[in-house]
């Protein structure tokens, strides 16, 4: 175990988070800017919805693009499990579909892709809940 992992472990213990042998702590890297990044993600998703309702294709496309880029940042990829990778890939595909539909000025295809994106949000969060991967307790 290297120094950084020890630091992570100590940070977890000192914040009072539950740590047990089964916890995927080894695959989790904690960074203080993770939650702000995640909130930017929510903002981008809301902006896509705004763009969809107003049929502002450039707004839809640019926010879908920045969401996809956001998902490639290291702070997004805090959870290093295969399933999280898969969920992230599905998420990126949904972003890509939104962007392409918006570029083609296809409102209904963009709307459908947005629904898919929303499902991706919920699915990944459910995966984390089911596996008790919860970074929120590291905040403050
Ligand atoms: C591939 C997995 C994944 C996907 C997909 C995903 N998230 Fe997240 N989300 C995370 C992780 C990891 C965190 C940080 C851990 C936590 O808050 O428990 C997080 C945190 C958040 C937070 C901050 C929670 C807090 O406590 O402040 C919000 C808001 C959020 N996500 C919204 C969304 C929205 C909206 C989408 C879809 C546009 C989405 N997420 C898609 C993994 C994901």
Give the CA-based shape. elongated
The fraction of residues assigned to DSSP E strands is: under 5%
Average of the residue pLDDT scores? 82
Distinct small molecules: heme C
User: What is the level-2 CATH architecture name?
Assistant: Up-down Bundle
- What is the CATH topology assignment? Four Helix Bundle (Hemerythrin (Met), subunit A)
Major beta sheet summary: none
Count every helix, treating DSSP H or I runs of 4 or more residues as helices: 5
Q: Roughly what percent helix?
A: 55-70%
State the secondary-structure class.
mainly alpha
Based on the model shown, name its key terms.
elongated; 140 residues; Four Helix Bundle (Hemerythrin (Met), subunit A); 5 helices; binds heme C; mainly alpha
Topology overview:
Elements: H1 3-14, H2 34-54, H3 57-70, H4 82-103, H5 107-130
Helix pairs in contact: 2-3, 2-5, 3-4, 4-5
Heme C binds next to α2, α4 and α5.
Keywords: Signal
GO molecular function: electron transfer activity; heme binding; iron ion binding
Protein name: Cytochrome c
Structure description:
This protein has 140 residues and is mainly alpha-helical. It has one domain: Four Helix Bundle (Hemerythrin (Met), subunit A) (Up-down Bundle). The protein is built from 5 helices and no strands. α3 packs antiparallel against α4. The longest helix is centred in the C-terminal third of the chain and has 24 residues, at 107-130. The model is unreliable at 7-29 (pLDDT under 50). Bound molecules: heme C. Residues 34-35, 38-39, 41-42, 45, 78-79, 84, 87-88, 91, 117, 120-121, 124-125, 128, 134-136 line the site of heme C. Keywords: Signal. Residues 1-21 form the signal peptide. One of its GO terms (molecular function) is electron transfer activity. One of its GO terms (biological process) is electron transport chain. It comes from Roseiconus nitratireducens.
């Amino acid at each position: 175990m290297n120094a950084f992992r020890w630091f992570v472990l100590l940070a977890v213990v000192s914040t009072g988070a539950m740590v047990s042998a089964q916890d995927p702590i080894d695959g989790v890297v904690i960074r203080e800017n993770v939650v702000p990044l995640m909130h930017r993600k929510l903002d981008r998703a809301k902006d896509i919805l705004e763009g969809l309702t107003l049929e502002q294709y450039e707004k839809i496309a640019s926010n879908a693009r920045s969401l996809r880029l956001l998902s490639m940042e290291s702070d997004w990829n805090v959870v290093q499990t295969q399933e999280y990778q898969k969920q992230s890939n599905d998420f990126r595909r949904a972003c890509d579909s939104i962007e392409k539909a918006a570029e083609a000025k296809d409102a209904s295809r963009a709307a459908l892709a947005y629904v898919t994106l929303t499902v991706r949000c919920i699915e990944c969060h459910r995966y984390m809940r089911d596996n008790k991967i919860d970074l929120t307790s590291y905040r403050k």
